Amino acid sequence: MKPAAFDYVVPRTVGDAVEALGDTRRKAQVIAGGQSLILEMHLQRIRPELVVDINRIPELDRMIVEADELRVGALIRHAAFESADAVPGPLGTLLSRAVVNIAHPPIRSRGTMVGSFAWAHPASEWCAIGVALDATVELIGPDGAREIPAGDYFQGPHRTSRQPQELITAVRLPLLGGNTGVGFIEQRRTHFCFAQVAVAATLTVNDGLISEARIGLVNSADRPVRAHAAERSLTGIEIGRAQTGGYRLTDDDPFARAGRIAAHEDAAPLAEPYADVEYKQQAIAVLVARTLREAAADQQAHDAAQRGDHR
User: Fold this and answer.
1) Res 309 pLDDT > 70
2) Amino acid 311: pLDDT
3) In this predicted model, which residue has the larger pLDDT, 1 or 111?
4) For residue 118, which phi and psi values (nearest 5 degrees)?
5) pLDDT digit string (tens) for 131-146?
6) What is the DSSP track for 143-200?
7) Domains observed in the chain
8) Which residues sit opposite 140 in a β-bridge?
9) What is the mean pLDDT of residues 79-88?
10) How far apart are CA 226 and CA 151, in angstroms?
11) Can you give the residue ranges of the FAD-binding PCMH-type domain (predicted)?
């Protein structure tokens, strides 16, 4: 199929883009990477009257570290995060582990992190990481600029608190301290499928005890989920010795317990082809436990390196 007819503008400044979006007489869509939007337009499930192409706005094509945050502009492509060195510290490691699960290289070379936030698909890796890390979404519209915490931004599948006349200019993520370990694991039917379930986790450890855990769940409800109850179950727990070999954890292991809590208290999975609710609950429980163990091993490796222990 072909898209329905639409007008097309290419603004050169953020102000021009906002002015174009502010024309309430026409239904508008913003395009940056367009990896989801163009398909939906071809299928005519989305029929914009105006497409605003922001690819010629230089100020949106910047990724910088400001104080203790990473600010990702609206034109920064997924591929920018494939190297862990692209972003300082454990946050760079987490983003690099997650990004390889996003589609395949041609998609990653065009799609953007901010575009994922705009699209708000429940299976988006970036959206769950944003919720887990308390990211901030920056927007600007006819009434000026505003910021929305990621936890308040997502409202449901493809639904957000962004107004139609607003443009997302950037997403800000907090940098993670050196005493934080990270993990990301995804389950999907094939390499090119959306995630059936995925988990992002960070563990901050002080004096051998978990002082903070953050867990983001992908495709585990109608929006990205932060597993608050599972996180609380881990506070103050001794991290223990990193395990090697195999994935099975005993039922009384704190990571396994956190997985069960996440699956049955935090998540609200929806049935889909090849994955009913019971399957997804089991997958969430297992993946949370494994991802937490990956984060624990990551933190202990950093700790050993700082001590000069390379065994």
Assistant:
1) no
2) 54
3) 111
4) -65, -40
5) 999 999 999 999 999 9
6) TEEEEEEHHHHEEETTEES--TT-EEEEEEEE---TTEEEEEEEE-SSTTSPPSEEEE
7) 7-53 (3.30.43.10), 59-174 (3.30.465.10), 180-306 (3.30.390.50)
8) 145, 167
9) 97
10) 8
11) 1-178
